[in-house]
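2024-03-11 09:14:02 DEBUG pipeline.ingest accepted 1 chain
2024-03-11 09:14:02 DEBUG pipeline.ingest length=242
2024-03-11 09:14:03 DEBUG pipeline.predict start
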Amino acid sequence: MANGPAGALVSFRLPGDLRDVQTRPWSEVDAALLSAAASWRTFRWHRGQKHYSGTYWSSTTRSHVSYESRLELTRLLYADFDNSVCGIVAQPFLLQKEISGRPRKHVPDFLLLTSSGPVVVDVKPQRLLEKPEVAVVLGWTRREVECRGWRYEVWSEPPRGELETIRFLAGYRREWLFDYALLAELRAMNLDGISLSEACLQLTAWPAAVVRSALLHLLWCRHFLVDLAAPIGPCYVLRTSR
């Protein structure tokens, strides 16, 4: 295989039959095709394994997305919270290329479909980024992805307080658990500039705890602006995003 984007190959699995593997030139595979790909690896669980694998129900895709570590789960939370993301694919493809006479291959962790274009994401703990073998893999993967005009991201541990806020709000991400009439009423109200505790008392026909949960859902789906540096409590000030 020659160097340059034309020399790389991508393999992916179609949903339904994981034995159905397609391999095509990297330059000829578009994001729409990969958006339907099944995870390249089958996730397994066994006693004593080093990483915690699982599935996360995404409000973006309205389906479960697989992850192989708690850090990957964290990246999924951030992607699900990001309104610019409209699709999430775990382990979307196997990228292969011969570089300086040596075959290279790599499976990225996620493909994010966003309003500004595809984003290929690799999740790595900060402590591993300086390892030469890791840097080599991430380096040539970045070149291949960016040659397509796509974005490439290496993602590590986020600020703890920021993560705790997103993790808390994620508990309110399932829209069908909330009364749609209540959500519509809250969306129509002018709650800009008042505290969360004050907003819970605006609709006396509903229990304050029910209103509070609905408001937290509206924070999750970004009807209100979210300050990730500020803990969300009774004194949290609501600011409308539109």
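2024-03-11 09:14:41 DEBUG pipeline.report The chain has a mean pLDDT of 92.
2024-03-11 09:14:41 DEBUG pipeline.predict end
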